[in-house]
Amino acid sequence: MSSPKSFLQATDVVLGYAHNVVIKGATLAIERSEQVCLLGGNGSGKSTLLKGIMGLVDVRSGEVSLDGARIDTKRADIRHGLGVAFVPQDRKLFGQKSVGENLELGCMAMIADKVERKRRVEQVLETLPRLREYVARPAGLLSGGEQQLVALGRALVSQPCLLLMDEPTAGLAPVWIDRLFDVMALVMHEYAPTLLLVEQNVEVGLALTQRAYVLQNGVVAFEGPSAGLAADERIVRSYLG
Amino acid sequence: MLFNLLFSGLALGAIYALIALGLVVVFKGSGVINFAHGALFTLAAYLGYTLLEVGLPYGLALLGAALGTLLVGVAIERIAYRPLIRNRNPVVFKAASIACAFIVIGLLRALYGQQGDFLSYPPIVEAGALMVGDFIVPVQQLILLACATVALLAFGGFFRFSRAGRIMQAVAEDPEASRIVGINVDRVFMLIWGAGAFLGGVSGVLLAPVTMIYPDMGLYILIKAFAAAALGGFDHLGGVVLGGLILGVLEICLGFYFGTKYQEIVGFAVILLVLVFRPQGLFGSARFVRV
Amino acid sequence: MSTRDNPYLLRSGLCVAGLLLAAASFFANDYQLHVMTIIMINIMLAVSLNWVMGYLGQLALANAAIFGIGAYTAAILMAHWPVPFPLAMVASAITGSAVSALVALPALRLKGFFLAIATLTFGVFAHWIFLHGGSITAGASGLAFRRPDFSAFGLEATTGMFLISLVTLTATLWWTSRLVASSFGRCALCISEQEMIAPTLGINVTRHKFKVFLVSGVIAGGSGALFAGLLGLVDPESFNFGQMVLQFMMVVLGGFGSIVGSIVGAVLVTGLIEGLRAFKGLHEIALGVSMLAVILFAPRGLYRLGSSRWAALGEARSGGSALRGMTVVKAATTAETSTRRSVPAATEAPALVVDSVSKQFGGLRAVDAVSFEVKQGSIHGLIGPNGSGKSTMLNLITRTTALDSGRIVMFRQDVSALSGHRTAAMGVGRTFQNLQLVGELTVLENVMLGADSGMQRGSDNIAASSLSSREDTSARIAMESLEFVGMGGFALSKGTELSGGQMRLVEIARALATRPRLLLLDEPAAGLSLNRIDTVRELILKINRELGVTVVLVEHVLNLVLEVSDNITVLSAGKVLASGTPEQVRNDTAVQAAYLGRRASRQPKIHE
């Protein structure tokens, strides 16, 4: 066996769509319970990389492993069963179903026992009390910020060991950015999951994490501790050229 | 008289509702129209015929035929749907399902052809009638209506309240979101197709005693299913059931007043009128219909 | 260059085959002649269906009904009046095309399988009419009449029909291959694969769809007359749903959009039916299995990823125009190329004025009262973070999307209310962010789509010139465009064989071939390597400096935009955030904040 791998290890990953190779060889290493941010301008490929780790985009070459076992060959739903939860940028809620149903669906496939499912949903509602208000409302009718909370809750219901979040603050009104920020800080504090957070908003991303990678043109341009990067001129250059 | 017309219409309509439901469950769930649905209906009718010949009681024959049809439906899913999912071209799947329909119908014609072009079922029960209040109700029709209603309700219950049903609904609404929450979408597709085929099968064995069965009957049934679904709205299960009932009543009434040859075109007229004036039907959503 | 691409070879082959068959008619017996005539009719039906399904990509399944209507028209005419057969055939062709145009109406409004259902239903309805048409159609037993008499030529009835069908078939195939290899066919394929961008290439989509349906209807209706004449009897069962499915199968088996494929499909299907007639149900099984096999396994068959959907069994299609293009260009390169535009003198009128334009999608204001001006002959950058409305803005300019409010003025003309293809006719070319080229056309033919459009509004007196000289000019212009962007060597490749970056360049060539005055580029550098981005940068400068084209550039790769633009407008959340020279924009703190995100104002608050 090779040297001890990190909890989440992506090595020389190449992935993309039919005519478009988006990630051209990226390497990440994330330890258990670490919170790491993926930054980069438009077209840097950060969202695609996250989707590749979840299994929604095929990995063309390279390896992704979770806790020592390879996952890049496994289907997305199997990865979910292994503890990977994904909060997509467009939330991808079941718009016609109620918030409560959405939350329950977060663990419907993995848990057959109705009582246990209800218990988990209740637990998440304790953490995100704001959701109680609209437990019965169809998810599609909520505002962007509210939907983001539901998506996060749905991910937490599966009690994941790896939480992937794709630009949670994108398109949100400033008051919701603050709210979401607070909620996420709370979740990090209480659940301490391993977190890989993709963010367009540099400030928010760095404030919530300990370490960050900056992607540019499909490869990792540089990385470092979040606190230090906040003032780094290289970031402005990588975004604005 | 009106009562009898309504009753017959509802009985017929309930069966149309079942068939259309099977079609729409597959459409909602996997996004494609199974053009072989009519052939599955025909298959069930013939399977039921054989099981009855062998001596099974009607109820068991119904179940057996529906299960057999379920299996064939799943087979079609694996042969003609699964391999083609990645292909963006919509024509491809229609062509594949038509090909499957042809194979099924050809097989039926080859296997049963010697026995004649048209076969008839033994009656389910002794022809008779009940008196309900002031009205005469033919027993056979009553049984039809009862069975169809039970099937519809059972399916509705399963779909809405059981875990499998709720997972199917999730996949029907958004397969990618379902993947994210750990649902094995491929396996659910199989279930969806099986369910659709089962519904089609049940309706096949229910309708068979009332008419003569022949290998090409599937086409006309398919058109009725389309009509019911178009009327109700292709992505609204409840609407489709209502559409079927309305279609049945319309057919019986118009057939009575104008002659049986006009019964057939009720279905065509409904489809054409709906698609021209209100393509999304009564309850469907318009976004997927218009260019 | 393989022989099958050459249309000249196809046509000579056709003549030879035709003559051979004609000669053979004297040796064959009645039954054989009958079957061969049926095959020829089926080929024409397959070609007719192919026009609508294969080339235009519409799932219109009313062909059996149109065939039937044509047949009944001829039968009724010949049964009740002494109408000579050729006249009856013309009448059938006319009714066929009229019904086909009627079917085209729902095709304009309904999507995919709803269109299929509507047209199938129409077909079943037609069958019902044939069945219950009383004394006019003579119902189920069919309408019989005296078959056309060829004794004046010393021929028997069947032989006579065979020869007429042969002539008609040859004419049909010739006509179809000419149409396909011309702008008509290219436009149809463009509509089929990339309907949204067709107007930007000057294509009037509605009118073109109608034209294709008319062509299809003429062929199907005429075939109906031939069928009637052959049998001396028309009955409803010849035009039922099963017939429609058989036609569908011929096209699927043989290959969409392929003339040779239509022939192969028709022969295969007819052969199977005739051969297996004795065994109940066997021909259906055989047809079903073959169709399934073709779908699942035919390597370049229906089962193709992306937008193409063509079968492998032979394409006698318009590779010829590309071939012609090459030979013409080889001759032309020795001559001087005259089509370089001179740089226009600096004028006062801006190329483009966007005035308070807004667009709302549901609850989202994608573009909110945006105004800016683009000077003629300049390069204008349009940038902004994700979701700022840049692409929507381009769509509004080319009228791919309709405005909610505001005005757009191009070269002093208000285009706010014009339709897409008319805006294109004003001299606007554009590329798109995600779309690919028309997969079934070669690279050259893709660019010829643009050249055709440019020629339409050009001063060249095209209306007077012949089809082949128009084709040559179009190919020449297209080739020049390709050379200009550096993709000349790929002229005969298929669109799908190129890499993303190469396709981008071809799209630019296609836009250039329309001879635009204003060129809109939508993220040309997205996903490209650094080398490629340099190539694109050089190309943009070349287009602007050498051809004098005004360029509006939407891009994410900011160094590219900052380097080439004369002026930049920055959008954020649908509004104009800043505008000015590249330096001003780069150093604008509001712009920096928009891209990097607002500050989190305080420390996180943690609940007890």
Can you give me a brief rundown of this structure?
The complex is a heterotrimer of chains A (241), B (291) and C (608). Chain A is α/β, with parallel strands linked by helices and 241 residues long.
Helix percentage range of chain A: 25-40%
DSSP, total strands of chain C: 12
CATH topology of the largest domain in chain A: Rossmann fold
Through-space gap between termini of chain A = 42 Å
- The gyration radius over C-alpha positions of chain A equals 17 Å
Question: What is the level 1 CATH name of the largest domain in chain A?
Answer: Alpha Beta
The percentage of residues in β strands of chain C lies in 5-15%
Major sheet summary line of chain A: 6 strands, mixed
The H-and-E topology of chain A, N to C, reads as EEEHEEHEHHHEHEHEEHH
Uncertain runs of chain C: 1-6, 299-344, 599-608
Q: Would you tell me the structural class of the helices and strands of chain C?
A: alpha/beta
| Oligomer type | heterotrimer
Q: What's the total count of β strands of chain A?
A: 10
**CATH superfamily membership of the largest domain in chain A, which one?**
P-loop containing nucleotide triphosphate hydrolases
Number of domains of chain C: 3
> In CATH terms, what is the architecture of the largest domain in chain A?
3-Layer(aba) Sandwich
Strand order of the largest sheet of chain A: 6-7-8-3-9-10
Q: What percentage of residues of chain C falls in helices of 4 or more residues?
A: 40-55%
Calculate the mean pLDDT score of chain A and round it: 88
